[in-house]
Design a protein that fits this description.
Layout lengths: L11 H9 L19 H12 L12 H13 L11 E4 L1 H13 L5 E6 L3 H9 L3 E8 L5 E2 L1 H7 L4 E7 L11 H13 L3 E5 L24 E6 L12 E4 L3 H15 L4 H12 L3 H24 L4 E2 L8 E6 L1 H7 L6 H13 L4 E2 L10 E5 L4 H22 L1
Parallel strand pairs: 2-3, 2-5, 5-6, 6-7
Antiparallel strand pairs: 1-8, 3-4, 7-8, 9-10, 10-12, 11-12
Bound molecules: pyridoxal-5'-phosphate.
Pyridoxal-5'-phosphate binds next to helix 4.
Amino acid sequence: MGKFYDSVPVSAIVRIRDMMYSVKDPFRLDQGDVSFDAPDTFKQAVAKAMVENRTHYLPTPGIPRLRQLFAAKMRDKNGIPVESDDDVVITNGGTHGIYAVLHALLEPGDEMIVPDPEWPPTMAITQAAGGVAVQVRLHERRGWRWDLDEVERAITPKTRVLYLNSPNNPSGGILTRAEIERLAAIARERDLWVLSDEAYEDIIYNGEHVSIASLPGMYERTIPIYTMSKSYAITGVRVGYFAIKDKKMRDRATKIVLYTTSNVSSIAQYGAVGALEGSQDCITEFRKELLDRRDFFYKGLAEAAPGVFSGDAPDGAFYAFVKINAAWAKDAGIAGDSLSWAMAEHLIKHARIGCVPGVDFGPNCEGYMRFCTGRGRDELTGALASMKETFASIAARTA
Ligand SMILES: Cc1ncc(COP(=O)(O)O)c(C=O)c1O
């Protein structure tokens, strides 16, 4: 089993993160991390927990008050019929939630339908759990959404799980209510579990967030997964959660949480209680600022890299997922086995800009790049200026 992990890939996001530590004065547009400070309600609750010496072991699924708050949030905000706080399990961020749930759900060789593009750890964790991620293309011309006939055709007798991620990382594509209704019908007909990764539920500029678990009869077969990382700007604190109605499945997933962490940090959990009990205004404020930053970046990109990248600004999440002009890259001498890796390496080396190659998100996204637009204005401005200078020097050389 140990050696098996050698074949589980490390996401380019992590590889690039490590590379960026050796870059002097970098522009960190690689990671999916917003630059905002955590809300005071969270920080004060952390400080209070420390003063009160809340530093001891906790129940594995989490402290009762936080489970209660998350259950209420899923009921009131997401419309999911979570009847008991016992359904809720707190995890070390969303990544850990996905790890626990996929290890609980999958048997060796089980297939899971996943969007292409998708956040790479989803595929890696599926593989680590012995499953097979079957990526089905999102279409850029459809606003980075599936053609649901293609999803249906990808389902085989081995398919056990349908993985939804709306808004999608990296494309920002958002499933419509009608699409979610059809996906629910497919899941019922084909007797599938649904894993609904709603990490970006709060970062929607156009359209609505619909949790498939809120549709009649769907919570029974859906595991909604959330994280506080993005909504509260606490990526390093590590608080996520999921809810499972089925007791047997929940006990299994909780056992995985037990043996991978015992319990999520007590201080983080008490801080999370403070964040949830306090004002939720930060969520709206962050979203507003993220929209401005998105527009700022796309405008700047058109000026810094004319004719190099193309694509529409997304309706959700905080990434620019743009297509590289392959002919331009070829003339510029930016080439290799993978165009998107060649572009990422070029931008890191010559412009100090962290970015992620599209191919890492799925085979259909070779030729695309992901930039995080959730960084501060200064960082975005610096990155765009650096990109402009780098590409202008290529233009001068190739003119
Ligand atoms: C789609 C998606 N799901 C889940 C996560 C997990 O986030 P975290 O582990 O920071 O809570 C991320 C993080 O980038 C993500 O993009």
